[in-house]
Design goal:
Blueprint: E1 2-8, H1 14-38, H2 47-74, E2 77-83, E3 86-92, E4 98-103, E5 107-112, E6 116-120, E7 125-130, E8 133-139, E9 143-149, H3 153-170
Antiparallel strand pairs: 1-2, 2-3, 3-4, 5-8, 6-7, 8-9
Helix pairs in contact: 1-2
Length: about 170
């Protein structure tokens, strides 16, 4: 196994850090309260179940996603390696399991990605957060995977060129 890069998280500024943690906890608490409210429904108000359950699950998902992003910014460690003609990207110390194995022969390109993700509605952004990932690998035509937490420009450019050189070698 050849290790290409090891990345450690760098902390966000105090205001961004506090905002992300506050919003994630707030969404999780609202989701839990909504699910608890569903448990006291009577037979006459069962139609609320159709409205509140998807909303509660959506709130929980968004809350846990923000908490995962907070953990990636502050505590995560990422290892990018090559083993048996496969690019392996593994991120530890985050909420969700982040491990991706991509055959080098399927990699089309590695691009620099924007630093925010979110759900945009016509006039405003409903859910937007800064993400620590700096690179995006495009493989098998249309699949994408973000990686490269908290990398500097020089390290990011070097890693992208190294991955593309390995991918070209195995095509």
């Amino acid at each position: 196994m050849t290790i290409l890069a090891k990345n450690k998280a760098t902390k966000l500024s105090g205001a961004e850090n506090t905002k992300m943690l506050f919003y994630s906890v707030l969404l999780i608490v609202f989701g839990i309260i909504t699910i608890c409210a569903l448990s006291v429904l009577t037979q006459d108000t069962l139609w609320l179940l159709l409205i509140l359950l998807p909303s509660a699950l959506g709130l929980l998902y968004l809350g846990f996603s923000l908490l995962d992003c907070y953990l990636k910014w502050n505590y995560a460690e990422e290892t990018i390696s090559v083993q048996y003609e496969t690019l392996i990207i593994e991120c530890r110390r985050s909420l969700f399991r982040h491990r991706k194995e991509i055959p080098l022969s399927t990699i089309d390109c590695v691009v620099i990605c924007d630093d925010t993700i979110g759900i945009s509605t016509g006039l405003s952004t409903l859910y937007e957060t800064n993400v620590p990932e700096t690179l995006k690998v495009v493989y098998s035509g249309s699949h994408r995977y973000r990686f490269g937490i908290c990398m500097t420009d020089e390290k990011r450019d070097f890693l992208a060129k190294a991955i593309m050189a390995l991918a070209d070698e195995y095509k």
